[in-house]
Amino acid sequence: MANTADxxxxxxxxxxxxxxxxxxxxxxxxxxxxxxxxxxxxxVDNNRSIEKTWNSGDTIYPVRVEKRAYQFLYxxxxxxxxxxxxxxxxxxxxxxxxxAPQFLKDGQEVGMLFNTETEQPMSVELPDKIxxxxxxxxxxxxxxxxxxxxKPATVETGATVSVPLFVNEGELIRVNxxxxxxVERVKE
Length: 188
Fold this sequence. Notes:
Layout: E1 2-3, E2 12-15, E3 18-28, E4 36-43, E5 49-55, E6 59-60, E7 65-76, E8 79-84, E9 90-93, E10 109-115, E11 120-125, E12 129-137, E13 150-155, E14 160-164, E15 172-176, E16 182-186
Antiparallel strand pairs: 1-6, 2-3, 3-4, 4-5, 7-8, 7-10, 8-9, 10-11, 12-13, 12-15, 13-14, 15-16
């Protein structure tokens, strides 16, 4: 059995019948009272974010999670369709289970988290940074590069990303999928 000393960032815990991922945790010690362990938790199977406090040494219930490689195929009425890279088995998931659906493109490799107790998919994670082509953006004004001014650009997936003025239509850019921000221009 695990206790509060085993808590780590990214661990999946079962609380009140729901699954939560540990975002941040810490310990509060006082001279007179017993130590307390706190954690900020993000819902895996729901959209809730909560904070939880335990007495030091309390029992917690971690869930074993496995990450498997999947490939994004297409989106239709049933949801987002993925294929297992090894068994070629296909699975359809709702948009709420995908961490950044606006950046998914056909053939994209993703990591799918599975609850090993029930073999149910829990969420889909895109790579931290992906390369996308700019399909539309206004041309930047010549000489207007003194400040870090950004302009909107539409990428091949249809998402809008703020990019520096020197980025032009047709260029490849690297985008951070966690924040949705422009990282750098990519040379072919």
